[in-house]
Amino acid sequence: MRTEPEILSPDETSFLVRQRVARLATADAGGNPHAIPVCFAYTPGAVYIALDEKPKGVPPTQLKRVRNIVENPGVALIADRYDEDWSLLAYVMVRGRAELVEPDIEEHASAVRLLRGKYHQYERMRIEENPVIAIRPERVVSWGALDEPDARPQVLDTVRGRRSVRRYVDKEVSPDLVDKVLEAARWAPSPHGRQPWRFAVITGRQTKERLADAMGEEWRSNLEMDGQDTEIVEKRLEGSRRRLLDAPVLVLLCLYLEDLDEYPDAERQESEITMAVQSLGAAAQNALLAAYDLGLDAGWMCAPLFCPKEVTEALELDPTLVPHALLTLGYAEGDPPKRRSRKPLEELIILRA
Ligand SMILES: Cc1cc2nc3c(=O)[nH]c(=O)nc-3n(C[C@H](O)[C@H](O)[C@H](O)COP(=O)(O)O)c2cc1C
CB of 31 within 8 A of CB of 86? Predict the structure, then answer.
């Protein structure tokens, strides 16, 4: 147990800012305790808690926690980690004085920014119209394995478990699952946060056929140009067509460059586009990992990159969109026969300075 006046240590700070929920304890003038779970944001000198519009039945200022703070500003906030492996247990408790920061005060705007930055749900709530609770930390108590990483190994399991699937069983994917996959893509890192990608979701047989026909034509002429044997050309084309038609869902990832920064020189402009492409890759990987996590399987087809014009025409897309990749989504017919191994890490890390 560590007790320290006023200031959170680096370990306590990093533990606290990783937590999504804490418990706020207040008491009325008579000392009757009241504790509730809260979403919070921390910045040195203050813990902020929004008074949001979740259905509460009473105006925010009538909430018990608010009435208690007005009567008795002494509060405690505790954030903790529970794990069946008790070597990972930890908590940070902040004691201090709470006050209401009203919307017309400058601090209110920065508190709302912090809260919205941490919880995307607040983006759609009018928390800026209500006061924000600010706790001024005066005393901190902490205990346990604060510096153990929170992320359980599941992320790595998902990363290692995901694999490219090229054949699916005939089973529909619920639109809700597709939205969840795209929600993961939406949260990919992107240059300047501009999200330079858009998604087309294709499930209809006719649309798939139009797409397969358009891409097939272009591929045929490329393969013929490469001097490939006619029989092999036909076989490869048929395989690719089947892949498109048999996948329950196709997601076309398009690059969207209209929101990017513009530079006077070609070199920086090119880097800007490269960043957008890198970000599209991150969005694709987010989608693939989310799909695997949701019990779906997925594959990546690069074909649209080689015939963007044909894809745009077939799907009647806006010309500002550049088709880049197709993700197939569905349920795997079996374990994929082609599982590529990976180079050892030591071969990939070329410098440890
Ligand atoms: C940019 C990119 C393009 C790809 N294009 C195709 C493709 O057109 N067809 C295909 O079957 N797989 C494609 N893949 C999947 C790779 O072949 C696959 O990721 C790789 O073999 C490793 O296998 P795994 O994904 O099962 O780990 C592509 C992957 C990437 C990153």
Answer: no
For the Cβ of 343 lying below 6 angstroms from any atom of ligand 1, the answer is no
Tokens of 108: 């209110």
Question: Does residue 181 carry a pLDDT above 90?
Answer: yes
Question: What is the tally of structural domains in the chain?
Answer: 2
Residues 32, 103 within the same domain: yes
Residues 84 and 117 in one domain: yes
Q: Say yes or no: 233 and 158 in one domain.
A: yes
| 160 shares a domain with 58 | no
Distances in Å between the Cα of 30 and the Cα atoms of 95, 96, 99 are 19, 18, 19
- The stretch 113-119 carries a mean pLDDT of 91
Residues 161, 307 within the same domain: yes
Closest-CA residue, ligand 1 atom 9, reads: 301
The protein residue whose alpha carbon is closest to atom 28 in ligand 1 is 300
pTM of the complete model beyond 0.85: no
How far does residue 310's CA lie from ligand 1's centre (Å)?
22
Mean pLDDT of 9-37: 94
- Ligand 1 centroid to Cα of residue 213, in Å, is 22
In the chain, what percentage of residues exceed pLDDT 90?
A: 75
Residue 150 has pLDDT above 80, yes or no: no
For range 171-192, the mean pLDDT:
97
pLDDT at 2: 41
Q: How far does residue 123's CA lie from ligand 1's centre (Å)?
A: 36
Q: How far is it, in rounded angstroms, from Cα 254 to Cα 200?
A: 8
Q: Are residues 135 and 159 in the same domain?
A: no
> With a 6 A CB cut-off, is 164 part of the ligand 1 pocket?
yes
CA distances from 104 to 109, 115, 129 (A): 8, 17, 9
Coil, helix or strand at residue 149: coil
**Average pLDDT of the chain, as a whole number:** 92
| Domain residue limits at 276 | 154-330
**Candidates 160, 164, 339, 341: which one to mutate for ligand 1, based on the most atoms within 8 Å of Cβ?**
164
d(CA 165, ligand 1 centre) in Å: 9
